[in-house]
Sequence to fold (479 residues):
Amino acid sequence: MDQATIRRMSDEATEVLLNKPGTVSSTRGGWMMISTILIEAWDLYAIAFVLVFIKAEYHPSNGELGLVAAAVQGGALIGALIGGWVADRWGRKKVFILTMVLFIILAIAQGFSQNITDLIIIRFLIGIPLGSDISNGYAYIMESMPKGRREEMGSRWQFMFGAGEVFSIIVVTIMYATGISHGILWRVALSLGAIPALILLVSRLKLPETPLSLLQRGKFIEAKRVSTELFADDLAMLPNEDVHIEKVKVGDFLKVIWRDPIKKRATIFGWISNAAQGAEFTAWGFYLPYILVIAGVGVANASMIGTNIVTAGIFLLATLSGWVAPLMLKRIGHKGLSMWGFGLAFLGLMLGALSLWRIDVSPTGLGHSLWQVLLVAGACILMWGHYWDASNGMTITSMAAPARFKATASGFGYMFVKGAAFFGAFAFPVMSGHWGKAGATMAVGILSLIGFLSAKFILPEMFNYVEKEEDIEAALESV
Fold:
């Protein structure tokens, strides 16, 4: 068979699968993929609570301390880009097994670092499998679950992120309260991420490859078998033999996306949304414990336990928001979810900026306590909005892409999250030094406003969108 015939059969099977109802097996695979977020949340947020102990042991410069916090984001940026491309060529299962193995090894290794340089390098390397696994996981969800359900599952990543953050706060606070040596505490806290990663690795070993990934690599025999398992359809239109399909190119992905108005607008919004929410969180949410300490919230007898309790409460609310967000899709769609999310985040950041400014102006008295309460209220509004606006950027970029480019599209989308997250984690302390905490917070709020405007004017409604495969070859030939 020639390539045109093979592609025609593959695209016909792809369209059938994208419109199929799911099974118990497909739902289980979706939960397995989205649970990766728990691991990333643990690694990302546990370090926010132990930076003070790392600083006490290694005495790093401000730049080195910023790199310790941001290095994993830089590694994830590279991992997202490379991982998506590799997953489209090698398949989903090989990549998600490899990434978990690498993460387990590196998570344990960071607990044995000897100096600040070791720690920065290891945390950068940890980011590579994390970024790869997220981009690969989103492709798996979009390929193994039915329409509507895949959108809900993809939008649950903020719920999983919040759960991981709350868990890390609780564990670190318990270790701190027991009086464990601070030098041991931070090492154990960072290494503990290897335990859930090991559990996830073992659980994933029996998951099948996605039929869409197999189709795009010409493995028709296995695709028919897996399709029967996941969707109860043996894809009778395909021959019972494997075929050779020419490898996809990254340049082809961009050509296809740019040719179709819906794909183009959805993808551009996804990139803007991912960048805005990535910087929005790491510039303010990541440093929230530090901001609360500076403002005197929950601080008593030089203990960080009170601040941790307040922070845990804020993130419990955020976790609830992350659970509600997918349920709202049927009511307000992706467009409404993003507009409400970025709008609330903007309001929360403005209230936070005003509260920080007033706390600096009135450091004591009744007014001071009132502005502390309003600061916490601003953080709650921000986090509720953030867990809505961050829920669907990755889902939209993955949904809009053709099956043969889904992991590549997910990798591109996550690259914007991590690039902005690296910038936010590294730049917020610098902006605070020049403009103060209030001024830096207002600057972050501009990003949320940009996200709101892009949702209103760029994003087409994507709820229940199903990618049409038949236009791809024409798109590639016409460019």
Remarks:
- The CA atoms of residues 163 and 319 lie 6 Å apart.
- The domain at 3-478 is CATH 1.20.1250.20 (Growth Hormone; Chain: A;).
- The longest helix spans residues 305-361.
